[in-house]
Structures are given as C-alpha cells and as structure tokens.
Amino acid sequence: MVQDRVTRITTTPVAFHDLPLLNTVGVHEPFALRAIVEVETAAGLTGLGETYGDEAHLARLRGAADALIGTEVFALNDAAARVTRVLAADTTTGGHGMSGMVTGSSTADRVLSPFEVALLDIQGKTVGRPVSDLLGGRLRDRVAFSGYLFYKWAGHPGAPADEWGAALDPDGIVRQARTMIDRYGFGALKLKGGVFPPEEEIAAILALRAEFPDLPLRLDPNAAWTVETSVMVGKALAGVLEYLEDPTPGIEGMAEVARQVPMPLATNMCVVAFDDVPPAVRADAVGVVLSDHHFWGGLRRSQLLAGLCRTFGLGLSMHSNSHLGISLAAMTHLAAATPNLDYACDTHWPWKRADEDVIKPGAIGFVDGAVAVPDGPGLGVELDRDALGRLHEQYLSCGLRNRDDTGYMQTVDPSYRAVSPRW
Ligand SMILES: O=C([O-])C(=O)C[C@H](O)[C@@H](O)C(=O)[O-]
Ligand SMILES: [Mg+2]
C-alpha cells in the first residue's frame, strides 16, 4: 500500500473587502478575515482549506498544524485525534470568527475543519476523483443556493456609496433582491433580520412575497426576539416563510416558539455541536438544522450530522459566513453528496468583489442560482498564489485582526449594545 504523509502546512490569513451589512450584533467591517490552509505531502501534492481568520483561531490552527505533520493523508480519524489532543491543553476562549452569533460550537471541530477539507482535497488528487466522490458520490450536478439579503448602509461610514447602495426599508430590500436575482438567478431568498423592529421586517418579507410570489422566503433575526415577539412574527408570516431561523435564544425558547407558530424553525445558533442534538430533539425545538462544515468539523462530520437529522426527522440546510472560493467548493461538494441537504444553501458570495479571491477564476461560479459541482480531482479549484499574496498584504495593512461587528457599530453609535433578545 502506497502511503503519503503530510510534510508541511502553511496557514495564511487574508482580508477581502466587505460591505456594511447590518445584523443584530452590529455591522460588517470594511474587510472580512479568512485563513487559507495549504497542506503539502511527501508525494508533492497540496490540499486547500479555508476557515475563520480571527487571531485566537489562527493561533489554534498553527498549533494543530504542527501536530498534523506526519499524518497519513487518508488517516482522517488520526488527524481528528491529533487536533483534539493538541487542543486539550488550550485554555483560551473566543476567536470564534462569528462576532458572538455562534458561541457554543466545538473548538476542536472548528480547528479540524480546514485540515479535513485539505486532506480530502489531497485524497481526491491522489485517486483522481472529485471530493464529492469521496463523500459517497454526487446526487446532483448542481447545488442550489439562496440569495442572502441584508439591510445595509449606502456605504461604509466616511466612504462613498457602494454599488449596492442603501437597503433600509422594504423597497430597498426588494430592490436588492431584484439585483441579486438578476445577477445570480437565485430561486430562494433569505433576509437577515434582527436589525429593525419586527413590524418593519415583517413588512419587508411581505414586500418580497408580493414581488416574488413563487420564491421560498426565510427570515433570520439571530435570536433578536423574545418568545412572545417570535410568536407574533411567526403568526404574521404564516404561509409566507419556508422557515423562520433562530427567532429567539436557546433550545427552551425555540421549543416554546415552535409549539405556537405554523412554520418550521431553523437554527445555526442553538444546535451548533453534536452535544446540542439530543436536547433539541427531546424538546422538539427545531425543524431544520443549518449545517456548516466550518464549525461542524469538516465535510464528513457534516454528513454525520446529516444522518442524525434524517434519523430524527429534521430538515437540513446550510449556513454561511463571508467566504472565498475554497469554502464555496467545499460547500458544493458536500451538498452535492448529501441526500437530505435539499434546501437551497446560504452563501455570502454576492457580497464579495468578483475580482477578489484566492483561487484561479473559472473553476466555480453561479448559473441560475446554482453552482456546478467541480469535476476536477479533489476540490477542483486551484490556488492563485499571487492573489493569495495580495489578500495577505491586505490583511497586514487593513488593521483588523478579529471580526467585531459590534465594535464597528459603536464607532458610529457609541451607545450601541448587542443585546439578545432586543425586542
Ligand atoms: O445565518 C446566520 O446566522 C448567519 O449567516 C450569521 C452571519 O454571521 C451573518 O449574520 C452575517 O454575516 O452577519
Ligand atoms: Mg442563521
């Protein structure tokens, strides 16, 4: 049996331009941070992974990278054990990369994820097959994504308006949706809520329904509402929403809401780790779990979650954060090879500049709201080393080291506080 082992791992933080997208903890800063992981092997292969770029996370990635030297490229169980072992001594907290919106996920799973993806990329290159084949084979050639709408300012404070302009009311949201659908062809829409009083967000959803009568709609206020407010919104949007995502904090609160509203509740906040599954199932708190390989421990552990969802009769969708092309490729292979991941997946893709990425153009993109599963070996995307260098320089010069939507909002409104629930 021919073996190949990891000889070197490089972790490079990068920054790419982001727009002033509003959410319930504040507003996106001018740059989003990511870390790009390159795993090299004795046989001369390289695998790619992408993850959060916050400082504490970077430090953990580097510790894990040292521990992964020598790992055999098919030994994913050994890789997971090495990461768990090295993190056992880590008493630091924070650095989640999600500005306080996803807090209970497993540190070991978050750190493992980009290495697992990179090892799968290498395995695919070794056997000449796409990652989706290593995950059981694709069930769909194209993976549908949803158009992710945000309330937003016209531009960053002190800067001119960006090409999307302001979206601060129902008309602005409908305009944004129209542009996004014209450009990408999305067949489902999600509105990031928790920004304005719930009545205004109900009005935005109803305006979307009037303009796009056939599109599935979702609303996600990231636990900005009390149980009572959530029930009020759920009843007001009966028959309108495909699902209501994280209206209120915690499994107990979600269960109370679920008992009183007609649509399924979805979550990427109260079920974010395997330990959350039993209590959420017992309480009947959610109908749909949004997977995310970045915090569920990679692609194979996301498929483990998919199996649990099928067993317990839960739907499965996919969460995203601001991301680049390596993540999009990984998300697409996963969704293509996971039978019950049949909701349109989230993506922040439209919010990044088309010319900013770390992969060579052409391998992956949107047609009619969907991404064709790359056919090449591994992830099917290639690192653009010059672009990686440019985005790393941008990281060094941008001054940001952690995602802090709340702190950025406070530079505009010093009295601003991130509170949950807010209404
Ligand atoms: O579905 C979600 O909760 C998200 O997409 C979380 C993200 O962090 C989103 O709120 C954002 O980018 O502001
Ligand atoms: Mg969410």
UniProtKB/TrEMBL annotation:
Its cofactor is Mg(2+). Gene3D superfamilies: Enolase-like C-terminal domain, Enolase-like, N-terminal domain. Keywords: Lyase, Magnesium, Metal-binding. GO terms for molecular function: glucarate dehydratase activity; metal ion binding. InterPro entries: DgoD-like, Enolase-like_C_sf, Enolase-like_N, Enolase_C-like, GlucD-like, Mandelate_racemase_C, Mandelate_racemase_N_dom. It catalyses: D-glucarate = 5-dehydro-4-deoxy-D-glucarate + H2O. Its EC number is 4.2.1.40. SUPFAM superfamilies: Enolase C-terminal domain-like, Enolase N-terminal domain-like. The active site is at K192 (proton acceptor), H319 (proton acceptor). Residues 170-264 form the Mandelate racemase/muconate lactonizing enzyme C-terminal domain. This is glucarate dehydratase. It comes from Acrocarpospora pleiomorpha.
